[in-house]
Amino acid sequence: MAATSAASSISIGSTLSRATSLPQSRAQVVNFNYSLPTFTTALRSSSSSLLSGPDSSSFTKSLRGSVMKSQKTDTKPYGLNINASYKVAVLGAAGGIGQPLSLLIKMSPLVSTLHLYDIANVKGVAADLSHCNTPSHVRDFTGPAELADCLKDVNVVVIPAGVPRKPGMTRDDLFNINAGIVKTLVEAVADNCPNAFIHIISNPVNSTVPIAAEVLKKKGVYDPKKLFGVTTLDVVRANTFVAQKKNLKLIDVDVPVIGGHAGITILPLLSKTKPSVSFTDEEIEKLTVRIQNAGTEVVDAKAGAGSATLSMAYAAARFVESSLRALDGDGDVYECSFVDSTLTDLPFFASRIKIGRNGVEAVIESDLQGLTEYEQKALEALKAELKASIEKGVAFANKPAN
């Protein structure tokens, strides 16, 4: 099979990404003929003019790249042979994030099987998604008794499970409920698919990722390269807000975001925005604060009806697609993520990373070099809060069972 137009597809994640010929998947081929109009055909035709920039960081572009990578030249018009080869599990699939996230993952041509788990109401979600004419086979799993089967032989586990934020609620308020949920789910992951990539979405990420790490350590299966706190939404927001403020073409904008995933621990490095753009001190202050408080902006706008579910699903799907591309052999995958890190004196830190088949291949140290005075002060200021959140997660994971 030839990878059609592979050299023209651009990987997502950061400005370090370059146009590259993507390696052909060696996985089992799942034949799936789409009827016209198809999602992939529409995506390629409608987005071709928009997705030709050299430094895209959009989920859509990543998905288009994967579609083009997987397409085989065929004598049948619009007939696609998809190299769908990866099994993904979404834990918390019936929730406000889980449902749109599962839909976006269902659209990926790299997914052969999509497992949806929740404690209730997941059968209907699976039935609905199973009608979408994309390659992946959808299965539903309800309750703890079916969790092990859900996780068997899974390549990527995505955990959006937990309660959402409500007006007046901080991420820390979510801790006692969501910490227990994450602990239980990661224990099951450790027992059933210890080699899977684990994507933690459940807030507060600054604490739930350390909880997951401690659980995996106790089980003897901790691989720091395969545990990711999903902070992609901070990057998505930073890119969007900067593009709007500076009237830039959104697809060209890339702003690295470091630190953590709550309040002042979120630090957009506006001085490293690509393409290069200048900001006044006032603009820097306002943009930084807006990016840090963007989740609250949505919670308040929904007036008690929910939190940032749709944008979070979009960002999480982008990170899933990046992970799948890395697993499939794409050697040019970069994202920001909250990971086990030696970049600072903190044990976990969000920064730009390179992802490969075995997980984190490199942390991009250069992002922390040459910071402005404002960014350096903000970096030092966030450390105390981030340290406390990490320690809170570690303490929770290690407290004796009642």
TrEMBL record:
<feature type="region of interest" description="Disordered">
    <location>
        <begin position="46"/>
        <end position="72"/>
    </location>
</feature>
<dbReference type="Pfam" id="PF02866">
    <property type="entry name" value="Ldh_1_C"/>
</dbReference>
<dbReference type="GO" id="GO:0030060">
    <property type="term" value="F:L-malate dehydrogenase (NAD+) activity"/>
</dbReference>
<protein>
    <recommendedName>
        <fullName>malate dehydrogenase</fullName>
        <ecNumber>1.1.1.37</ecNumber>
    </recommendedName>
</protein>
<dbReference type="InterPro" id="IPR036291">
    <property type="entry name" value="NAD(P)-bd_dom_sf"/>
</dbReference>
<feature type="compositionally biased region" description="Low complexity">
    <location>
        <begin position="46"/>
        <end position="58"/>
    </location>
</feature>
<dbReference type="GO" id="GO:0006099">
    <property type="term" value="P:tricarboxylic acid cycle"/>
</dbReference>
<comment type="subunit">
    <text>Homodimer.</text>
</comment>
<dbReference type="GO" id="GO:0005739">
    <property type="term" value="C:mitochondrion"/>
</dbReference>
<keyword id="KW-0560">Oxidoreductase</keyword>
<dbReference type="InterPro" id="IPR015955">
    <property type="entry name" value="Lactate_DH/Glyco_Ohase_4_C"/>
</dbReference>
<dbReference type="InterPro" id="IPR001252">
    <property type="entry name" value="Malate_DH_AS"/>
</dbReference>
<comment type="similarity">
    <text>Belongs to the LDH/MDH superfamily. MDH type 1 family.</text>
</comment>
<dbReference type="Pfam" id="PF00056">
    <property type="entry name" value="Ldh_1_N"/>
</dbReference>
<dbReference type="InterPro" id="IPR001236">
    <property type="entry name" value="Lactate/malate_DH_N"/>
</dbReference>
<keyword id="KW-0520">NAD</keyword>
<feature type="domain" description="Lactate/malate dehydrogenase N-terminal">
    <location>
        <begin position="87"/>
        <end position="229"/>
    </location>
</feature>
<dbReference type="InterPro" id="IPR022383">
    <property type="entry name" value="Lactate/malate_DH_C"/>
</dbReference>
<keyword id="KW-0816">Tricarboxylic acid cycle</keyword>
<dbReference type="GO" id="GO:0006108">
    <property type="term" value="P:malate metabolic process"/>
</dbReference>
<dbReference type="InterPro" id="IPR010097">
    <property type="entry name" value="Malate_DH_type1"/>
</dbReference>
<feature type="domain" description="Lactate/malate dehydrogenase C-terminal">
    <location>
        <begin position="231"/>
        <end position="396"/>
    </location>
</feature>
